[in-house]
Specification:
Layout: E1 4-7, H1 11-26, H2 54-57, E2 69-81, E3 84-94, E4 103-111, E5 117-123, E6 130-131, E7 136-140, E8 143-147, E9 152-157, E10 161-169, E11 174-175, E12 181-185, E13 188-206, E14 209-225, E15 232-239, E16 245-252, E17 257-264, E18 270-274, E19 282-287, E20 294-303, E21 308-314, E22 321-323, E23 329-341, E24 344-356
Parallel strand pairs: 1-18
Antiparallel strand pairs: 2-3, 2-14, 3-4, 4-5, 6-7, 7-8, 8-9, 9-10, 10-13, 11-13, 12-13, 13-14, 15-16, 15-24, 16-17, 17-18, 19-20, 20-21, 21-23, 22-23, 23-24
Signal peptide: 1-32
GO molecular function: hydrolase activity
Pfam family, one: Lipocalin_9
Length: 360
């Protein structure tokens, strides 16, 4: 059975997750926000049960009553073809308790070799969107995403390009905070797990050029209420040469500031560790000409409990912002990292997701 270790201030996150898990299984009011299926396995020797089940929770959930309740699934890939390297992202999210801008999907591609970048963002009418409960079966104009925890198929069609890939997850799933539930900000729980190592291959077409691509992807599945008091967040994924998968959350709400990481080891064990606030090591700000929002493009990340110090920087073109229906936007940028992890030199590729204003 996988083990869990907690270090530093992040132990409070696991304590909160344990309390939420207990409430869920004890039939308290928290049960209304619980996953639709019973958990398949426990994730910690401490007796804290996992509250997510990847086999069932790839499917859509019954929505909560608030308009900020969301279902989200996306993957980010690092793929190669004919001496060129691509980063790409496919994301769909729904807010079924909201009257407007409720169903949406996006697709973005950056050619890391040339710096070329383009994204596509579309709203879908509710009657034209399908996401089945209990299984991964998503259909919308221009988007098809089906499969399970063994194999998935994704097809995307846009005016400027298309994607047709097969993905096969390898290794264990990652439950964020080791249980799959944590407070995103100001005491509002979210549910999240990842399939962090997916072998990916297929065809990418951009501007009329076809590329046979192959590489790896990281899938993230998240649902719950979005805190209205959340002012900004940063999320990063880091795949280490020793097989460790590291997911960083850095959030600022009206009453809370949290910077922490879930570490999944190849044997299925976890560490939940403190991360120094990312704003302390953020630099090289870039201001979007489309939305006026400002984002850093470089970070010095320190994780004392893991003897780790990493330099992360956006790859190539910093304009990897996806605009949102309200006129704002968020950064979904391919990046690279170098530095030391557990005292050893490392390098790799990752993605950085950022929302909110970074002028201060």
């Amino acid at each position: 059975m996988p083990a869990i270790r907690t270090k530093g201030r992040s132990a409070a996150l696991v304590t909160a997750a344990a309390a939420l898990a207990f409430c869920t299984f004890a039939g308290s009011p928290a049960q209304a926000a619980a996953p639709s299926a019973a958990p398949a396995a426990r994730s910690a020797t401490s007796g804290i049960p996992a509250v997510v089940d990847p086999a069932a929770d790839l499917g859509r959930h019954a929505p909560g009553p608030k308009p900020t309740w969301f279902d989200s699934i996306y993957f980010i890939g690092s793929l190669k073809a004919n001496g060129q390297e691509f980063g790409l992202q496919v994301h769909t999210r729904i807010l079924p308790s909201r009257a407007e801008a409720a169903y949406r999907w996006t697709f973005s591609v950056i050619n890391k070799t040339t710096g070329w970048y383009k994204d596509y963002d579309t709203m879908v009418k509710p009657e034209d969107y399908r996401w089945s409960e209990g299984k991964l079966d998503i259909k919308a104009p221009g988007l098809s995403w089906t499969g399970d925890t063994v194999r998935q198929s994704v097809q995307v069609e846009t005016p400027w390009g298309s994607l047709d890939v097969q993905m096969a997850p390898t290794g264990p799933a990652m439950n964020y905070a080791s249980t799959g539930v944590f407070n995103l900000a100001d005491g509002v729980p979210n549910y999240e797990f990842a399939l962090p190592d997916m072998q990916t291959s297929g065809t990418l077409v951009v501007d009329g050029k076809k590329h046979k691509v192959s590489g790896t992807s990281w899938l993230d599945r998240q649902w719950g209420e979005m805190p209205t008091s959340l002012t900004r967040w940063t999320w990063m994924n880091l795949s280490m040469p020793n097989g460790d998968k590291v997911a960083i959350w850095d959030t600022i709400g009206a009453e809370s500031k949290d910077s922490w990481a879930t570490v999944l080891h190849p044997d299925g064990s976890y560490e939940v560790v403190d991360v120094e606030p990312l704003a302390q090591g953020a630099s090289r700000q870039w201001t979007s000409p489309a939305t006026g929002q400002t984002y850093p493009t470089r970070w010095r990340i320190r994780i004392p409990a893991l003897r780790s110090e990493l330099d992360v920087r956006v790859t190539g073109n910093p304009d990897q912002e996806i605009e949102t229906p309200d006129g704002s936007g968020y950064l979904e940028a391919a990046a690279t990292f170098t530095g030391k992890y557990d005292g050893k030199k490392v390098r790799g590729e990752n993605y950085v997701e950022m929302t909110g204003e970074w002028n201060s």
